[in-house]
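Sequence in, structure out. Go.
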Amino acid sequence: MTTPHQPENLSTELAIERSRMASERTLMAWIRTSLSMISFGFTMFKFFQYVVESKSTTTWHPGGALHMGKTLVVFGTLLLVPTTIQHWLYVRRLKKHSSEKFPISFALIAAGLISLLGLAALANLFFHLGPF
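Output:
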């Protein structure tokens, strides 16, 4: 017999909650990885862009470093988008099996905002748009 405050199958509800939290932790790990790639790539590009514009070197051409910086920003942004969608679909599937209401996912909000940050960095690197 269950009490009024406990669902019929408490162990199932707790398993669903653990699965949801594990998915949140996985998304946060992807956020950290993507943010690191985006920020390092952007910094690398801007540093070597400054080196090229200042003409402080005449024998070394940092074109490869500029391309590597762009590649890191692209890769970091493109990795975050599908992992965010994967997390959202997984949580949506979990909701079907749960009688509890899930809290707002701040990791999902952060992933969306960082994806926008990555797109803004890409717009700056490729089209020279924005204040950067």
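Check: The mean pLDDT is 88. The radius of gyration is 21 Å.
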